[in-house]
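In line with agreed milestones, the collection of sequences with tokenised folds has grown. A representative record is reproduced below.
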Amino acid sequence: MAKSIVDFLVELDTNSKLMEAYKRDPVTTASDYGLSQEELTLIKEKNWDEVSKRFDDTEKAIRVVNY
């Protein structure tokens, strides 16, 4: 199964090493994680509205995405 941007955001929330790498180079970190080109573009362009639409996580605690 391919990893999605949702998986990536959840992992960022729980993995401090991944978060540090993301802070240094968000696009490369997301690429290394295995995100699709479309999802990498969302991060590169900081299209947080579209990311929020994909993050339908009603079964878990509400998260504020502010990277």
The two ends are 25 Å apart (CA to CA). Helices lie at 5-14, 16-24, 26-33, 37-44, 48-54. Residues 17 and 58 are 26 Å apart (CA to CA).
